[in-house]
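Would you mind writing out the residues of a protein together with its fold in token form for me to study?
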Amino acid sequence: MPFCNASSHQNKDGDESNNNGTKIFYRTYGHGPVKVLLIIGLAGTHESWGPQIKGLAGTVTPNDDESTSGDRSNESDDGDGVEVCAFDNRGMGRSSVPTKKSEYTTRNMAKDAIALMDHLGWEKAHVFGHSMGAMIACKLAAMVPDRVLSLALLNVTGGGYECIPKLDRKTMSIAIRFLRAKSPEQRAAVDLDTHYSQEYLEEYVGDETRRSVLYQQYVQGISSTGMQSRHGFDGQINACWTHKMSRTELESIRASGFPISVIHGRYDVIAQLYHAKKLAEKLHPSARMVELHGGHLVSHERTEEVNTALLELIRASKSKISLHEWTNLHKKSKVCKATRISFYKTSSLSFMVDTVEKLHLFLLYFFGLFVLAFEHARRAMRSLKPVRVGSALT
């Protein structure tokens, strides 16, 4: 099976401490001079990129010949063939599962991806990431911008508090059901509401709804790969929560000159559209914002549109298009920004909005504590053994 020993590929900074013994499982698809690295998100495996692998490489049959993958990197730059690599992040699938939460950061996971590029013999690649994978892709682009040809960020946020979803009845229900999911069937049911828009799930495919069809597929997929381990899940959550892109890192990406696409579903209940737009603005003029009718897994819900956007991004990189022609965003002037801030400060409406936002975070925080406390209490009660009491002495 194709594995990359991340610890055997020393990074430029010489720090291998967090890659010690980590093995990354990967698969390559298709052949050609165009190299595409796909980085999946939280609790996902390389198979989650299926629709994009098919759209980019033209096949979902893995190459599986690890011994020749490095040789193909020396092919001529002529031609349009695409070779795609998708892999399981540390903590998921067939890759290593470190037990220390501190070993899960987007920087360490970006190092895994760079080690994989070295292993494949890829000097440069188009780097596409989804959700947490998009955070990892951002880190990779900031660490080795000279090795990135283009960057696609699907359903991304800036990490930290931006990972907090909207607080409403639907997300509260999803959170409770997710924590209580102990079987592939329970996990599949909650994943569907997390990944797709309700409109898409209720559409009919023949005599069945998409929900019914996808439910069977999800149960089968989760059963074959197994539920994610507690170490892996907690670690990847830690990576999302501690992720942050500094101004220096963002400037490094902007200054590198490669085109960027920020692709997002309007009805994403996990990663809010607002945060994706904000990141795209920070990457101006390199970024183009692509807003689609879909949920968190917009790459599956709107496969054709996403694949078209990705192929267009590859063509833009190859043609070396001017970034000012590429972007569809307009950078706001400092004067306008200052005027807007001044207006908001004097507006009672702004005060109400700020108060509601703070209350939202406050309620979500205590709701999370309540759910965690409930789970711990339930486990504690289950672990208690009944005490056998002898007959009383009279």
